[in-house]
Each structure stands twice: as C-alpha cells, then as structure tokens.
C-alpha cells in the first residue's frame, strides 16, 4: 500500500441518485445513516467528512453557489460559513446573518423555501437538518405545523426547474433536502401525495466504501510503512472484514482509539474488538489461559463426573477458540463467537454444570456465566424479551435481556438451557449470532458476540415419538456410549431438519454437538460421595458440627440413591434429600445442638413410607 496511490472514492448510490434526479425532483427526503462520515473527494484529496460537507461538494459541482441550512434549534445559516456565500445569501433572501445564524419561524421558513425554489439569480439549495424534530408527532400536527407542511407539499408540486442567470446550463430544480432519521418522522401524506418528492435512503457503507476508508486511515496507525505493500493489504483486509456492519464514523473512532491505546497497524483486530465490546483487556490473549486449559481436564472432571468424552470434546473446541481458529475454514470468520457448544444427553448428567465449570476455567469467575431458560420463551412474542420490543412499542427503549447482558459482559459464557423448548421463530434469532456474531436490539444498538462462548443444552433424543405419537424412551441407562451418541445425534438432526424445517440452524452448529452419557453405577458413587461432602460442609458452616455416618447407613443410602439412574446426578440429589437430609433435619430439630461438636448417624429406618435416622450428638 503506497501513499502515492490514494484510495478510489466509490460514489454511494444515494449520491448518484441525487445528481440524477436534480433535473426532475424538487424536494428530497434523505433518511437512514445521515449522521455518518462520508468519503468525499476534496481539493486537497479524499477525506471523511460529515453529510453537509458531502452534500455541498456534490451540489457545488452541479453549479450550486449558495447552500442554506435550517434546523429547529439554531434557525437558518449558510454553509460553508464563508464571506462570499454569506453575502450572497443575505442579498438574495434578505437575511441578517451577522451572528452566523438567524432564528426564523415556520411561516418565515415556508416563505424562504418559496423564494429559494424560484430563485434565478444563482443556483441555490436548502437543507432542513434535524427535520425529524420539526414536529412533536407527525400524526398529530399543530395548526402552524400543518400549514407549513401543506405549503411545502404545494411548493414541491408547483416548483419549476430554473436556469440561473449566473452560470446558465440546463434547467434543474433548486432543491429542498429534508434530513430525517426515519422517513416516517414526516407526515405520511407529505411524500406519498407528491411525485416531485424523492426518497433517498443512506445505507450503511458497503465493503468497497469501508475498504477505501481503511486505506485512507492506514497512515494514522503506528507502524505504518508506505513501502510495505503486503502488510498494508493485510491491514486493509482485516480492518474491512472486521468492521462489517459499521459506519465510516466508527472506523474513524477505531483509528482514534488505536492511537490513544498505542495499538499499531499489526494490532488492528484488537482495535476493532476494543471498539465493539468496549473492553481493552482480552482474556483470550492471556498466557495463563493456555496453562489453565492444558490442565483443564482434571479441573473439569473434578466437578463433572463420568463424562470424559464430553469433556475432551469441549476442551478441543476451547483450545481452538484460544488459538483463534474458530471458523478458520471460512473466508471471514473473525466475527463469529469464540466457541459454540451444543450439549445433548439425559437429564442430570452435568450439562449445565459443565457450562459453569467452563466459565470458571476460562474467566476465573462463575459470574461471567449468563443463563437463559428457554422454556420461558415457548411463545413467539417472548422473543421481544431477548432483543427488546420493536421501535414504537412499549418498552422498546429498554433493550433486550440478551443484548443488554452481552454488552455488559462481552467476555462470557452464554447458556441457552433446554433450547428445544423455545418457539421455532425465536430459534431463528440464533442464525445471525452464529453466522455474524452480532444482534441489534429494538433501540438499534448492536451487541457483539465475538468474544463469547455459546452453549446450548438439550434433552433431544432421550425420548422420541413412536408411530402412534406416544413418547417412548429412545436410549436407556446401560446402553453403550456409542449407541447413545448415535441415537441422540440422529434425533437432533431429525428435530431441526424435519420437525422445525430449519436445517440451517443445525448446519451453523456444525460438529460442535457434545453428547453426554448416562451416569454409570461407578460414577454414581462418586457423585453420591461428593454430595455427602457438601452436606457435611454445610453442617460445619451452619452449626460447627462434624458429620459421621456408620458404614451401614452410608451403604443403604447409596443403594437407595442409585436404584434409578435415568435422572442422573439430579435424581441422586433428590433421593438423598428425601431419604437423608429431611430425616436428619427432623432429628436435629428435636434436639439441643448448642455446644455440640459432632453428629453421628448410626441407624436408618423406614416405616409406613416415613424415613427416619438415629443420631447421636457429642
């Protein structure tokens, strides 16, 4: 990339349409991305400039000598504020612009518009800036507002193309340009009922525009070397790809951020990430993370018992994320989430626990874990909770629960529990997250998922419907893991492809499906002992009591807790609560425990389906 080859300035469609329509349209409603910066060819070279400057350069090339700008706050002024233009405006329109601007009423503005459109002394144009704020409500106009828009509509129809005395040329309108955030900010009848009012929508910059802006901004980065073409092209591609969906103003802000943070041309990805997520510290780049993940198997299996295959697959995906190779097979995958995991298998086998453990391993803090119970989103309208209500609806300005949470914690594990219980239309929202790594809420603010790990959990495949529509168990405790994995994967494929008719969701999840096995009798004993330790720890914390169990009581409890392993560790916990915690609480409640140091459970009994234990305090 050489500074002797300035970027080619692409002409935006809206700008081409403006030039093309000037001879046949008298007014233009300009909406969309109006507050952005725009690549414009200036006498000193290409630059990123505000819309007003871009419009002035375009109209100046069409022979415009005077550009008036009105906004509801500051009134009327001349752009650019130079002596020749100001003198011309004061002479043609009887203005007094000694302070740079003049406050005028809507009635005076309507007269000014009429004068301007018929002006033949010199070609002129009027820009109504912040036109969205001309009225409190476009559907409920005050009397003076209504008269003003009627005058503007009438003027759009009656105005005629003019040939100015100065400059001559072909006939063209002296245009009036309304700058609005949305076209509906003006009364609907104003543009609909007049063929002479054209609508120009300024879209977000395309790839070509972002690439040209990246070339223009490159010399501002530390370490830029005009002679290094390869490094320059790599920078341009990374900057252009990483800024997809952003404005050119955002590219300027990223450049300013990089300058202030000392991020050079080789660190453009970090500069873009900092801007997107609003955080400078990147835990994915920390050296200690590799060490933690290298020993991650031991750390995870201490909390998630008996799921070696699932833990191994999870760590493989995590290592890929740390190496920055997620989506490496695609031409551009830098905006996708760091990792995507689909945990499937029986209930109570550690799917949610693995998500929590993963959060602890990567971020060192379980609070970086964000959980959504998808059974709460079974109705289609519940999707508004995730992204926020659409504009105009009650609560739209509050944003969505998902987008707000990710903006608050850009480095996090986001868990969508029991994904199959969500409404199918809500599942469509994940297509954009999985592909582009971003979502825009009802306020128009974008949340970026590029630094998150997404975890979906599901019980699909454990139960299926037979030919009569009845639910039957598809896999059972004791089945080989290979059988469980094959049947669960097959059921997941059938669900997304045939029941939902959304194979594209499954396609984006790819091979990131992690199937959990049933809890085996050997593993169940480990889970049981772990839960007993938790009970003992709670007694120690609450009452300073040491818990002791006789071997007979321990073995009886173990046998009762693993009679049915179809509910996994959660089933063991439920049984232990019913057969041990409840009777132990009853026994301790009946005795005086102040000053005691230990409690020994020596006997276990059940009569009339009521379990009781014998305890001795010492």
Short descriptors:
Rossmann fold; elongated; 17% strand; 4 domains; single chain; 618 residues
Provide a compact summary of the structure.
With 618 residues, the protein is of the alpha/beta class.
What's the tally of helices? 23
- N-to-C CA distance: 82 Å
Radius of gyration (Å): 34 Å
Task: Give the biggest sheet.
Answer: 7 strands, mixed
Q: Could you say how many structural domains there are in total?
A: 4
- Gross morphology: elongated
Going by CATH, the architecture of the largest domain would be 3-Layer(aba) Sandwich
Mean pLDDT: 87
Descriptive report:
It is a single chain. The protein is α/β, with parallel strands linked by helices. The chain folds into four domains: 13-202, Rossmann fold (3-Layer(aba) Sandwich), CATH 3.40.50; 207-280; 287-515, 3-Layer(aba) Sandwich (Rossmann fold); 521-617, Helicase, Ruva Protein, domain 3 (Orthogonal Bundle). Helices cover 42% and strands 17% of the residues. The chain has 23 helices and 21 strands. The strands form six sheets. Strands 6-5-4-7-8-1-9 form a seven-stranded mixed sheet, sandwiched between helices. Helix 9 crosses helix 10 (268-277). The longest helix is centred in the last third of the chain and has 23 residues, at 521-543. It is elongated and about 110 Å long.
Topology (elements, then pairings):
Blueprint: H1 13-21, E1 27-32, E2 38-42, E3 45-49, H2 51-61, E4 66-71, E5 75-79, H3 83-93, E6 101-102, H4 106-117, E7 124-128, H5 143-158, E8 176-179, H6 188-192, E9 197-202, H7 207-217, H8 229-242, H9 248-261, H10 268-277, H11 287-294, H12 296-301, H13 308-322, E10 339-344, H14 351-363, E11 369-373, H15 383-387, H16 401-408, E12 413-417, H17 424-427, H18 429-436, E13 438-440, E14 446-448, E15 453-458, E16 463-465, E17 471-473, H19 481-499, H20 503-509, E18 513-515, H21 521-543, E19 546-549, H22 551-561, H23 568-589, E20 598-607, E21 610-617
Helix pairs in contact: 4-5, 7-8, 7-9, 8-10, 9-10, 18-20, 19-20, 21-23
